[in-house]
Amino acid sequence: MKLRTTVLRKAGLLAVLLSCAGAGAAHAADAAQGGNAQAGRDKVSMCIGCHGIADYKTAFPEVYRVPMIAGQNAKYIENALNAYKKGERSHPTMDAVAGSLSDQDIADIAAYYANLK
Ligand code: HEC
């Protein structure tokens, strides 16, 4: 009797775990487009100095307001970085920063910042 309830409980738990894993995988595939937020976390050390502080201004080469990118849509961040990289958008620092990033870096960083609140 006791054994049977244990087995049933285990089966139930397994079903829940399986359905969670399925949903998680689908969600990750959805949001990712190749971007990995975990990997992105290791790639933003050079961004934090400027983008990590609310309402921060850089003084080089002029005074710029630094836009907040945490919580932005991943696609938006990706587009912005690609635009700097390709020269469609221009800013002295961001051109250099984006130019040093690979497509994978950009996707990972975008995923990271999109998940950052
Ligand atoms: C020296 C300061 C500095 C550093 C370092 C820096 N940024 Fe920026 N970033 C800026 C400034 C200033 C702007 C606004 C430029 C403009 O007006 O086009 C900007 C713009 C952006 C934008 C566009 C935001 C928008 O709303 O249009 C993105 C995305 C971005 N940065 C991502 C990054 C990432 C990712 C990194 C690190 C790999 C990084 N930045 C490093 C200063 C910096």
Automatic annotation (TrEMBL):
<keyword id="KW-0813">Transport</keyword>
<keyword id="KW-0732">Signal</keyword>
<keyword id="KW-0249">Electron transport</keyword>
<dbReference type="InterPro" id="IPR050597">
    <property type="entry name" value="Cytochrome_c_Oxidase_Subunit"/>
</dbReference>
<keyword id="KW-0479">Metal-binding</keyword>
<dbReference type="InterPro" id="IPR036909">
    <property type="entry name" value="Cyt_c-like_dom_sf"/>
</dbReference>
<keyword id="KW-0408">Iron</keyword>
<dbReference type="GO" id="GO:0009055">
    <property type="term" value="F:electron transfer activity"/>
</dbReference>
<dbReference type="Pfam" id="PF00034">
    <property type="entry name" value="Cytochrom_C"/>
</dbReference>
<feature type="signal peptide">
    <location>
        <begin position="1"/>
        <end position="28"/>
    </location>
</feature>
<keyword id="KW-0349">Heme</keyword>
<protein>
    <submittedName>
        <fullName>Cytochrome C</fullName>
    </submittedName>
</protein>
<feature type="domain" description="Cytochrome c">
    <location>
        <begin position="29"/>
        <end position="117"/>
    </location>
</feature>
<dbReference type="InterPro" id="IPR009056">
    <property type="entry name" value="Cyt_c-like_dom"/>
</dbReference>
<dbReference type="GO" id="GO:0046872">
    <property type="term" value="F:metal ion binding"/>
</dbReference>
<dbReference type="GO" id="GO:0020037">
    <property type="term" value="F:heme binding"/>
</dbReference>
